Structures
1.
Amino acid sequence: PLAGQLVFKALVASSFKALCAQGVPPNAAATQAMILAREQLQTGPRAAVPIPASQHYVAALSLAEGETIRRLIHMRHPALAAVGIALHRLDGMLLDRTESLARVAVPAQDETMQRALLCLRLYNNDMFYTDPEIEVLLAVLEKSTVLDRVRFFEDCLRLRRRERNRWGDTPLAKVLTERTRWHELPLLAKLEQFNAALRARTNIDLQDSFAKAADEGGRASCSALQRAFESMHLGFAPRDIASII
């Protein structure tokens, strides 16, 4: 929000230092520096001006809000004269920005921006992240419990229309699982896929299949269960079925 003011102050400081080095008295240098800074703001400074990370703010916008702000940018609306705004996609790609921000030196891998975008992706129910992104998410969410994370993610997921509703077999599982159980994730992922396959096969009579696999006492051995599951043709290798059993 203060990008315009910060750019102006930085330009004044730079011009004042240069004028003083030329032997101009401080009072006169200050006056000339302000005049030069104002002129440079109108024509564009010769070099990018750094803005401290503490002055970077991130907000999530709807598509309509983003289009409105983009229109204001292109109209050069007076409300944006002293404001630096950059519009990014969820993947971080820059879509548009105000002229004042174009004169600002913003690090390409700004940590605040990276953390904010990852949190927005989590809110958007994205499930696929790189290992470094997972570590950043874990650091951001370290004060929240795993149960709260799962509830939040699944509550958001229920409000969206997504083809994929299972997260147990995705990289996000590390964020939604206790670290002490990470070694179980491959097996839990297989189990979740197996259950989903069973639910999808509505023509299978599980009770009848298990009854055929059981002995007279109503118990079924592991090998009998494996044969029963293999006969259902769910698309799993015998080794996967054995690990699930």
Note: The chain has a mean pLDDT of 80.
2.
Amino acid sequence: TKLILLDSLLQEMTEEDDRWRFLVRFEPTPRSLVYLCEVVMMNIIQDIPRLKTSSARRWTLASIPPRVRERLLELFMKKFAGMNDHRKIIQKAWSLLYTHQMNCIDLPSTISTDQTTLKSILTYLGSGHHDDTPTTVFRLISVVGVEEVNTSLKKFMMYSPCLVEIQVRRSATDELLRAIGQSCCSLEVVNFARSPGVTDAGMYYLLGDKPEDEDSPMDRTCDVTKSVPYGGTKQSLRQVKIRGTRV
């Protein structure tokens, strides 16, 4: 019933204004209306029973545009920052709202303390890819297992050629940098601080070069489904943070 009422409200507001203008925070929009809609949607998502998440996800994908879903995920992250999310609200919000159409993915350090939730989010990032994502910014401070992080992120990076900023602190490895170098040729800013798995070889991969001690050609199997030519980030990269690595 709540979903039907909210859908009616959104339909009314859409008819009065340009589509979803009230949720993108343009100046002519009253903040009270924006705040009302955000609070209503967040409360509905929090109260959806686990057994109803499949039908609720179909509704959110059909009714709420990607930019608005991205904003709601950001609000959930802020709301539960530093709190004990014993009801797994953030995990549920990601399962309902996330698709590979987000422009910015920012996973703060507070989410890393809940390893179960972070593992679920990483699973969402690395699965179900068929087309390139429009994601331009990705930030993660991780404390979960390095191998788990890199397995999901390598798949995500392969389908994210538009990335201009990547931060993977504490858990980046040479193999992740290889995947980034093969797929993200517009990259401008990287931060792999406190990642002991990053060495000189990884930086060669990132830039599109072959490590000095590697005789065999670089493995380009990550690139077979991509339309972006392999070239590394040598031409685009302008800021690198690698303190705490083995470079």
Note: Residues 31-47 form the longest helix (17 residues).
3.
Amino acid sequence: VVTVAGPSDRLSMDATLWVDGDKVVPVIPLLLVYHKPKWVLSVMSDPQNRPCLNTVLPPHYQQQELHPVGRLDYDTSGLLLFSSNGGLTQKLLHPSHEVPKQYVAIVEDVVNEEKLKEQLETGVETKEGIHTAELVDVTHLSAEESQNVWQQMRQALPAEYNVTDLEERGYLPKDDATPKKLLSQVRIVVREGKHRMVRRMLANCGHGVVELKREQQGDIVLDDNTLAPSEFRNLTEAEQEWAQSLVPSK
């Protein structure tokens, strides 16, 4: 039992609150913001017992039947929303509503910014059609920074991944390969959400994706300084107003 001294005290999202001996029933949020780490599946259960959303969503939110707004791939991190309103979920997901989603990707090789910008604006063909994106910015990583990314990627791979197989197939540089590929960071905005679309677009532009993270969806922004991986938060007042504006009228 923890006594709350005032409004500045912080509690965990799964804390049970009591006031004067009475249990406080939490208000069901319209949207809940989650910072998904890599190697968590965006499903509520997994037959292989890999980490998934039912292992991270606080129990009282599971009882309120919050559902994830779309998915992030197993190997993708970042902003994942949970919703209590099916109509709002459809608005956020359906491409006709063009809700922008911003991603930051670490990609192979030194990116030619003007060339990539033109490729994305013109449209990139994948097996699911032609997709466009807006290139926000490009940063070239140094040899040392690139080396650190490759090393961290290797060290963080789950046990089910065969490192030797990934090396042989060209997805991972051999540990003794020197120098390893230089990398670039690109930030792009898309208005669709097809399966692995961002990865496929960038790969088809000649830049395989090494790391991918979603930073923003609509007016909701993920800030690493205030929301660490695996943590949840409620909407800010401005975000709540934006989300409420998308809820279909009855």
Note: The chain has a mean pLDDT of 88.
4.
Amino acid sequence: MPDAKLPAVPETILKRRKRQAENRANRAKEAIKLKVARKHKRATIFKRAEKYAKEYQDQERDEIRLRREARKEGNYYVPADPKLAFVMRIRGINQVSPKVKKVLQLFRLRQINNGVFIKLNKATVNMLRICEPYVTWGTPNLKSVRELVYKRGFVKVDGNRTPITSNDIIEGKLGKFGIICVEDLIHEVLNVGPNFKYASNFLWPFKLNTPTGGWRKKVNHFVEGGDFGCREDKINELLKKMI
């Protein structure tokens, strides 16, 4: 009986095997490249976060030092005018005049208890005056900005409200402005940097809870024991109850 020949492998199968082996090798190379890039990016993000932490600390120390020096001289220390404000809508949609409605739309405050970061300049202050009885606003500190972004932060991706699940989402949209992580975003908002407009617009308006213990009196100004209007740094106490 002649030796049983081994069945020859068809050419197509050999080609497919070769192609698959090449693809596997390419994928492995890409995976290694991605791993190295991710490691490098993580290190960059960590360095940036450290740099920002030091910057915030230095700013705080400078403020304290200047205040002490002024007191020693018998003067008063007047801090610089705030550049950032957090504006929150506190009243609903009933009986709102067209002008006020338009201003609230421009601020993206379409729902009650919605809040946004805005840059304070002559134009925005005048807009705030127009819609004052419907909003409350003030200057948030680092803790408030950070908590809002980390706990209540959603961003606009292709017109959809998307939770901030990774830094890649931020880098995908704001990478061209040098904003690649959440800490970059917080830094840009807090310091009202050159790309504040894009960073603020990228953040979806914050949806907050009604403050624990309720409002005091919405139809009165804050200085009259009510709620609406400017409350300067007292906004931080309110935000603590609402986040």
Note: The mean pLDDT is 92.
